[in-house]
Write a structure and sequence with these properties.
Two copies of one chain form a homodimer.
Chain A: H1 2-7, H2 9-19, E1 24-36, E2 39-50, E3 56-63, E4 66-76, E5 79-89, E6 94-99, E7 102-104, H3 111-123, E8 133-134, H4 135-139, E9 148-149, E10 158-167, H5 170-176, E11 180-181, E12 190-196, H6 200-203, H7 207-221
Parallel strand pairs in A: 4-10
Antiparallel strand pairs in A: 1-2, 2-3, 4-5, 4-7, 5-6, 5-12, 8-10, 9-10, 11-12
């Protein structure tokens, strides 16, 4: 287990990242590791860091690496629609909680490819990775941030946010609404929701949906995206 | 420890929340508990749920309860400024990562009071809880959501987002910029950043900052806030 943690991509990235800070790492105490089959899924650990003033403090980290999420804008007869996937969230006890399509990264750096694959799995919408607009790179150029950070005090999780725009027919739009999708093998049950883009923010309090909308609206205002 | 977990507010809320869903809880295996002094801080557990179709799946939960965050808009000579607190984030290895002021809830439901206290601790800005505009209640009326959910697949964490607007003099604005704050007792070191509100989204990829801005901008568009 020890070996697997030391080789897990998020942990390796974290150790390298810590070396670039002015903080000193005194110890790392791994409290639990959740395996996803043969792969390391989540690592939970405690650490103690010392800053340049010599002051120490404990930090607890829930390590789960990166993910991707896609703001899909469908255009039908000149009107814009957003696409949400609804699924039960056990941690928040929210039944069929709506959020933009998303999925975990498995360690490799091919963000766009993973995003296109997740989008097809969760919604059936097929796109090529090259059609995706990288909102993170546009908003934070030169790799300033890897993604949107969900909760910087407790987890390494970052979400690479994408945007894709597609003209669709009324039939396609109708077929998507209420459609049931998800990976049967993982007992992942999803119901699609299609709604006017302008109402998306008032329909869900999901961080990736609101953050993607914020970047989309502000980048649009600056004419950096269509 | 067992007793303390069963009495912890986030865990009690979660058990009650699960009873309202159609999911069946088969087991809860607590993997680790982080104490903050005498109080339960974080609980990490695994559970297996069965849905109405009889299909089961494992879920891992990093339980940390709720927090509050405040979008502070300072108005000086007709121009709007946003306030960010910058502090080292060990989980993401981001030095002096900027985000709107925030703090954890300690279990009680007095969100506004905690928000006002955290704002003063982190920035020195004194406000009364009654001055806070509850963006969550405005965007999701009738208690639809407790807050913005940071990562619904892995944690119960929700952030109650607030907004406060204050006219200030040039002196106050100048004093805030670069000021060092934070609770010495917790070795919490914070540097303030004051910047034009319109640029806030491009300065940080923090979920609570982007989500609060999204709600603020859209509620403003609908004339629900000033």
């Amino acid at each position: 287990m020890h070996e697997k943690v030391l080789k897990a991509v998020p942990f390796v990235n974290w150790l390298n990242g810590m070396k670039k800070t002015k903080l000193n790492l005194n110890e790392v105490f791994v409290q639990s590791v959740d395996m996803f089959g043969p792969k390391v899924g989540f690592i939970k650990f405690k650490t103690v860091v010392t800053d340049v003033d010599g002051d120490s403090r404990p930090v607890v980290v829930f390590m789960r690496g990166g993910s991707v999420a896609i703001l899909v804008v469908l255009v039908c007869k000149g009107k814009e629609y957003g696409v949400l996937v609804r699924q039960d969230s056990v941690p928040t006890t929210q039944p069929l909680f709506p959020a933009i399509p998303a999925g975990m990264l498995d360690g490799n750096g091919n963000f766009g490819g993973v995003a296109a694959k997740e989008l097809e799995e969760e919604t059936g919408i097929k796109i090529h990775a090259s059609e995706l607009v990288d909102l993170i790179e546009l908003a934070y150029p030169d790799g300033k941030y890897e993604g949107m950070y969900v909760s910087v005090g407790g987890t390494d999780e970052f979400i690479r946010l994408y945007y894709v725009r597609k003209e669709v027919s009324e039939e396609v739009l109708k077929d998507l609404e209420g459609k049931e999708t998800g990976l049967a093998a993982e007992n992942e049950k999803i119901v699609l929701k299609v709604m006017p883009l302008e109402n998306l923010w008032s329909y869900t309090s999901d961080s990736k949906t609101l953050s993607a909308l914020c970047l989309y609206q502000n980048l649009k205002k600056m004419a950096k995206i269509i």
